[in-house]
Amino acid sequence: MKAALFTAPGQPLSLEEVEIADPGPSEVRIRITAAGVCHSDLRVLAGEWGATPPVVLGHEGAGVVDAVGSQVNHLAPGDHVVLSWTPSCGTCRYCVSGRPQLCQVAVATAYNNVMPDGTTRVRLGDQAVYSYLSVGSFAQYAVVPAQGAIKIDEKIDPGVAALVGCAVTTGVGAAINTHAAMPGESVLVLGSGGVGLSVTMGATLQSPSMLIAVDVSQDKLDLAREMGATHTIDARETDVVEAVHDLTHGRGVDVAYEAIGRASSVETAYDALAPGGTAVVVGQVATGERVSIDPMRMSGRELTLTGSNYGSARPSVDFPRILAMYERGLLPLDLLIGDRVGLADLDAAFASMAAGTTSGRVVVDFP
Ligand SMILES: NC(=O)c1ccc[n+]([C@@H]2O[C@H](COP(=O)([O-])OP(=O)(O)OC[C@H]3O[C@@H](n4cnc5c(N)ncnc54)[C@H](O)[C@@H]3O)[C@@H](O)[C@H]2O)c1
Ligand SMILES: [Zn+2]
Ligand SMILES: [Zn+2]
């Protein structure tokens, strides 16, 4: 099969013919139908997060089950699925307590780009190839842990389904699972990329009094308005904290989500809070970045700074839940999709993401 491999930081992806294994007893092989391009893939490509090459990049993916392992009962060939990049083991303390997004097995294995048994399912000649977040969706096929493939309705457009695998669940989940605004509260969303726009869609479901979207691209701010933002701030033109105070009569916002992945924007989210407010860190910074906050304000104003991994989602509950809201017209996920490209166009897609010139999420289609 064809796969786009990360081989070294700063290098273009390498499009290779590789071998994909049969699924092990509790695994499934998926024929990928669509994949999305997330900033987290770019972090690896740019060398801002370490990963041992070669890696099939891509962790936002949808597809059709091609083969199932001998112990898999809940999926069958032909099922349409969305892939989860935190395949939960189902038995660790986090899985059992309803927080599979923190699964200890997934953190120790999928987050190191290997299967739960520590090995890989893709080969290039006699070399083992890792699969990013145990998904590796920039390839025609992927073998994944069976818990990492969530069955969905076959009517869903594969492009939309793929985005549910990361950006949508991360963003919508942050706004409805990790920390939901109360109806009538004010909300700030920093960053209007795939994740930030998804936060905006999720926060809109909570009926905020005001939803302020921030970006450095007018196209993205226009999209944010279409998805529910009531106000926008262009961070190139004005100081964001001052602009938020102007819009909120000096009070600040009740809830702020950081969806850019910059330490200074985490500080902006925190500094823009009203007394009693909560800042949610969704964006993921380059390894080693730190933030500086005023702990006196934190105690005196009872501020909360919290984090959100994968939208605090339970994929088998939240993927179908999000898609049901999409089908009812409550989440305009189609608006998220930008260019639809092929595997060979990925370098251009990443270059435009790095330059901030993409409009909408780039989706890779597999004809
Ligand atoms: N917490 C999680 O589970 C999780 C999951 C997926 C992605 N992420 C992270 O979320 C972040 C966003 O991912 P994405 O795929 O949406 O990226 P993206 O590149 O599509 O979007 C980032 C947006 O931020 C904007 N931006 C850049 N600099 C800015 C600034 N100074 N002020 C305002 N806006 C600015 C860009 O124009 C862009 O629209 C990344 O850090 C990614 O790693 C986190
Ligand atoms: Zn992602
Ligand atoms: Zn677990």
Describe the protein.
With 367 residues, the chain is an alpha/beta fold. The chain folds into two domains: 2-165 and 332-365, Medium-chain alcohol dehydrogenases, catalytic domain (Quinone Oxidoreductase, Chain A, domain 1), CATH 3.90.180; 169-310, NAD(P)-binding Rossmann-like Domain (Rossmann fold, 3-Layer(aba) Sandwich). It has helices at residues 39-45, 93-96, 104-108, 158-164, 167-178, 194-204, 218-226, 240-247, 263-271, 295-300, 315-327, 346-355; strands at 2-6, 14-17, 19-20, 27-36, 55-56, 60-68, 80-83, 122-124, 127-131, 141-145, 149-152, 186-190, 210-215, 231-234, 253-258, 273-281, 304-307, 337-341, 361-365. The strands form three sheets. Strands 4, 6, 7, 10, 11, 18 and 19 form a seven-stranded mixed sheet that branches. A six-stranded mixed sheet has the order 2-1-5-9-8-3, with no helix packed on it. 52% of the residues are buried. Nicotinamide-adenine-dinucleotide is lined by residues 38-40, 43, 166-167, 170, 190-196, 214-217, 220, 235, 259-261, 282-284, 308-310, 353, 356.
Write a brief caption for the model.
The protein is of the alpha/beta class and 367 residues long.
What's the architecture of the largest domain in CATH terms? Alpha-Beta Complex
The coarse silhouette is globular
Bound molecules: nicotinamide-adenine-dinucleotide, zinc ion
List the uncertain runs.
none
Portion in helices: 25-40%
| Average pLDDT number | 97
Total count of strands: 19
* CATH topology-level fold name of the largest domain: Quinone Oxidoreductase, Chain A, domain 1
Query: How many DSSP H or I helices?
Result: 12
